[in-house]
Write a structure and sequence with these properties.
Blueprint: E1 8-12, H1 18-27, E2 31-35, H2 39-58, H3 64-74, E3 75-78, H4 81-85, E4 90-93, H5 99-112, E5 118-121, H6 128-132, E6 141-146, E7 155-160, H7 166-178, E8 182-186, H8 195-212, H9 217-225, H10 233-240, H11 242-255, H12 264-272, E9 285-287, E10 290-292, H13 304-320, H14 327-338, H15 344-348, H16 353-367, H17 376-379
Parallel strand pairs: 1-2, 1-4, 2-3, 4-5, 5-6, 7-8
Antiparallel strand pairs: 6-7, 9-10
Helix pairs in contact: 1-2, 8-13, 10-11, 13-16
The structure holds nicotinamide-adenine-dinucleotide.
Nicotinamide-adenine-dinucleotide binds at residues 12-18, 35-37, 41, 94-97, 101, 105, 122-124, 146, 148.
Length: 388
């Protein structure tokens, strides 16, 4: 199959991610079947798409005719899985993050879809290779990791499982470009793929700072906001939800290193029901959807340079483990998946390795976490020659 053969895409699940994926595929001109288990879920998904298209028309970004065509012709909401996938060339799954559910969905999809259809999962944490065991012809099975909200975030990680072929990965890369997104290939199916993995040690740092209790969270957030981040890292944890934050740390503790385990402060907050924005109280108090944060004072105890050093150190590991094809791919992932102004390799190209090493050694000694230990290629600066 090649890109010209792709006419219809089926999206299974119409929730937060599924309806966004259906929308961007339809905006690229594809016929899109959006499947869910109940009409009310489909109606909610369609309402989300309608609202987003209205906004785009209002801003003059797309013509009103196109929005009408998408809603009336291209999008086909259905509860019938067979009708959705039997004539689709690509099937993208976005059902809840439960392994048995994903496997049972793909067992059915594999029985109902054409034998050469590309099958992709939007999982953020599960093994692509394991989900692939549910399908016939696992060489056409891949991860296709969109970021939230799908209509605004450009990055899509295209993840190869053990059996996925390069041809199918390349075709999914082309489809991703056609729907106006920026694909980055993930060559190995490892926890966190590229972008979330690179953020993981900084999440462990936040955890350690809270448990140590010396740096007021608002002072680190104030320092990070000054670098241009729209939200400080603690505010972001509250925004996402401390339960989700802890769940992510737990996942990395099981798959990467026990040092990621959620700490005492986070656990106490979750036990009290202080989950962040959604409950009105987390690390900060929240009023009318906004965190109440006094950012008048910035800490100098932990600096943005130290957070950057941690990010680079993990990016070096991702490169050395062969998860990303190039440092350019890693930087593109960070820019488009985290809305950073530049990736760690670009920023650190002009930083003295001794400064990076000193930052990492300091954090390692202070918090006793080996994940902060500098990689040899950071210490000697040879990371600057990766791929050259
Ligand atoms: N929300 C995020 O920020 C985010 C980001 C990246 C990836 N993901 C991943 O995307 C996937 C979906 O997440 P979400 O946030 O959209 O979840 P969601 O709960 O908002 O939506 C899931 C949808 O799947 C439907 N569904 C459940 N069982 C189904 C079945 N058997 N067949 C068809 N539809 C079914 C549900 O009714 C619901 O509408 C998960 O794997 C998640 O890890 C989420």
């Amino acid at each position: 199959m090649n890109i010209a053969d792709v006419k219809k895409i089926a999206v299974v699940g119409s929730g937060a991610m599924g309806h966004g994926i259906a929308q961007v595929c339809a905006q690229a001109g594809y016929t899109v079947a959006m499947q869910d288990i109940k009409d009310e879920f489909l109606e909610r998904g369609m309402a989300g798409i309608r609202e987003s298209l209205d906004f785009l028309v209002g801003k003059g970004k797309i013509p009103a005719d196109q929005a009408k065509d998408i809603l009336e012709n291209l999008l086909q909401p259905t509860t019938d899985l067979a009708a959705a996938v039997s004539d689709a060339q690509v099937v993208i799954e976005a059902v809840p993050e439960i392994m048995d559910l994903k496997k049972s969905v793909f067992k059915n999809v594999s029985d109902l879809a054409p034998a050469d259809a590309i099958l992709a999962t939007n999982t953020s944490t599960m093994s692509i290779s394991e989900i692939a065991t549910a399908v016939e012809n696992p060489e056409r099975f891949l991860g296709m990791h969109f970021f939230n909200p799908v209509n605004r975030m450009k990055l899509v990680e295209i993840i190869k499982g053990d059996k996925s072929t390069d041809e199918n990965a390349d075709l999914l890369v082309e489809i991703t470009q056609k729907i106006g997104k920026i694909p980055v290939k993930v060559l190995k199916d490892r926890p966190g793929f590229i972008v979330n993995r690179i953020s993981a040690p900084n999440q462990a740092l936040l955890n350690a700072i809270l448990d140590e209790g010396k740096i007021p969270p608002q002072e680190l957030d104030a320092a990070m906001r000054k670098t241009g981040m729209p939200m400080g890292p603690f505010e972001l944890a509250d925004f996402v939800g401390l339960d989700v934050f802890a769940h992510t740390l737990d996942y990395y503790a099981k798959t990467l290193s026990p040092e990621f385990a959620p700490g005492r402060v986070i656990k106490e907050k979750i036990d009290k029901g202080d989950l962040g924005m959604k409950t009105g109280q987390g690390i900060f108090a929240w009023e009318n959807g906004k965190a109440v944060i006094d950012t008048s004072k910035e800490t100098t105890d932990i600096t943005p340079m130290e957070l950057l050093a941690i990010q680079l150190n993990e990016a070096v590991r991702v490169y050395k483990e062969g998860i990303a094809a190039s440092v350019e791919d890693i930087d593109a992932g960070v820019v488009h998946g985290m809305k950073a102004f530049a990736g760690p390799f670009t920023i650190c190209a002009n930083v003295e390795p001794s400064m990076l090493t000193a930052s990492l050694e300091k954090l390692h000694d202070r918090f006793g976490l080996s994940i902060f230990k500098p990689e040899p290629e950071v210490a000697d600066g040879s990371f600057k020659n990766f791929g050259k």
